[in-house]
Amino acid sequence: MQPFFKALDEKVGWLLNAVAFVTSLLVMGLMLFLILARYVFGWSLVGILELVMLAGMWLYMTGALIASRRHEHLVVDFLELQLRDARLKALHKTLVAVIVAVISACFVYWAMRMLAWGVQRPQHTPELSIPLWVSQAAIMVASIGCFCYALRDVWQGGAELRAARSGYSPAREES
Description:
By secondary structure, this protein is mainly alpha-helical. It has one domain. The chain is built from 6 helices and no strands. Helix 1 (2-40) runs antiparallel to helix 2 (48-69). The two termini are 20 Å apart. The complex comprises the extracytoplasmic solute receptor protein and the two transmembrane proteins. Keywords: Cell inner membrane, Cell membrane, Membrane, Transmembrane, Transmembrane helix, Transport.
């Protein structure tokens, strides 16, 4: 089953990178267009900032998912760096992953409530009438993705903990 998850992770990683690339281009291109239109050509365009903010929201949330996937999100690793025993390191990693999973589950719940509110009481942007749930969906997708990556980390931490108890290190096998 592990090759399946590895292939799935590679496909999800490719998709996240593609979304981040496209949204980066959109934010940059639309901002450049807005600046040129306003200050070079003297045009007054409405709604471009709404598109920039929408693309920016998806970019930020995709970036959070990419960081979570790569274990590059913010961490406080003072205690982790002090630990020398493999079992304590694995226990610490598992405990941190469980805490992150619980917090991520709360974010999933809150994002679901926010998205449901946005669908039940639809609001739109002032100029282009883009439904607000479109940007709220980015938060929902990111919260679910981060929760899934937190569960992955709990699983890996548990595997390292079992391996440390038996004296076997899965990290050595991957190298």
